[in-house]
Design goal:
This protein is of the alpha/beta class. The radius of gyration is 22 Å and the shape is elongated.
Length: about 375
């Protein structure tokens, strides 16, 4: 089978676009260590830090923000796109790209258009329940569309799952539990609740969990609370009770997943995919604003029995005491939810996407 020589990845802005791209890059390198990986991005996106840190080549191209509503920016869009397409085309020619894989974001649309003009194969990867404009256009330019969930509405879509870091996809929670709890300052025994509102934290989750600290401690439930770097969380310790550990940030979330028995968290696509991949049930609290996508992310898992769903407005210390605590203290119910969460997940999204990339190029 012929090896790929050069793959260009187009996606940036948010971790939700960048992490799947980097997981694919790692998978392609495992298949062929000599393949050239080039990532496209912008100077202001997270990719400017994350991509070089993982050892991959980043080429900066002009950002093309896509307005969601008719505004004056819409009139400027064609000129911006033309300039960005020229920049991307120059990179594709320089690295002799065999294929362009797009993940959405500001650089994906010009990458798709440049690849189309160059007659370079295109692969679109979509993880969101409501795809953005770039990937909606890209999906019409190729027959190779990878979906992170089966319910995502894009033409030519194939369910491959979410490309995940091997630290997550290869995690054995049971085997790593004792070590993870020791490193995080938790007790080896007892049920553990993980509270996390994402990299910046979430005020509603922080207030609800800290407000329920006495009830959780009295029930023997220890807590690992990732509050966010700019947030302060005050808890009331139960004398002689289990630990309530508050950390501003955890850079190795696989440790947190291994330590926990259930998570209280938002419902971003990456979060849901990671939790189900490792078989960790969760109480999902979708963002109260936006397009309702986070609720759609969590629903298949919740309907399968692998989690709970609570609106942000209904989350409170009382909800944790009356609804979540009975699950945390019922070993049988928690076990059923854990099995259902694992059945809803998929661990091989990175290799499945890598094989689709190879298929798109005839390799």
């Amino acid at each position: 089978m012929t090896s790929l020589r050069s793959v260009v990845l187009a996606g940036g802005g948010s971790a939700g676009d960048i992490e799947p791209a980097l997981a694919l890059a790692d998978a392609l390198r495992r298949i062929d260590p000599d393949v050239r990986i080039t990532a496209l991005g912008t100077a202001r996106g997270l990719e400017a830090r994350l991509v070089p840190a993982r050892g991959y080549d980043l080429r900066l191209v002009p950002a093309v923000p896509l307005p969601r509503r008719p505004t004056l920016d819409l009139l400027r869009l064609p000129g911006r796109v033309r300039g960005a397409v020229r920049s991307v085309r120059a990179v594709l020619d320089e690295v002799e790209a065999d294929v362009v894989v797009g993940f959405g974001g500001y650089v994906a649309l010009p990458a798709y258009l440049a690849a189309r003009r160059r007659r370079t194969p295109i692969v679109v990867n979509e993880i969101n329940q409501r795809p953005g404009l770039a990937n909606r256009i890209g999906a019409r330019l190729t027959a190779f569309v990878a979906l992170g969930a089966e319910s995502i509405p894009l033409p030519h879509g194939r369910f491959v799952g979410m490309p995940l870091r091997t630290a997550i996809s290869g995690l054995d929670r049971v085997a790593n539990r004792d070590q993870a709890r020791a490193e995080l300052g938790l007790a080896a025994d007892g049920t553990c609740l993980l509270v996390s509102g994402g990299s910046q934290g979430a005020r509603s989750l922080n207030l609800a969990a800290s407000g329920a600290s006495v009830d959780l401690g009295a029930a023997g439930v220890q807590v690992l609370h990732v509050s966010g770097p700019k947030n302060t969380v005050e808890v009331t310790a139960v004398p002689g009770g289990p630990p309530y550990v508050v950390l501003p940030y955890v850079d190795r979330m696989e440790l947190a997943y291994a330590a926990a028995d259930l998570a209280l968290c938002r419902a971003g696509a990456m979060t849901v995919a990671e939790l189900t991949a490792v078989g960790l049930p969760a109480a999902y609290v979708p963002l109260p604003h936006g397009n309702g996508e986070q609720r759609l992310n969590a629903l298949p898992v919740v309907n399968a029995g692998g989690g709970l769903l609570v609106d942000d407005a209904d989350l409170s210390p009382a909800w944790i005491r009356d609804t979540l605590l009975p699950v945390l203290t019922d070993d049988a119910a928690l076990g059923r939810m854990t099995k259902a969460a694992a059945l809803a997940g998929r661990r091989d999204g990175d290799t499945a996407l890598a094989e689709l990339v190879r298929e798109a190029t005839g390799r």
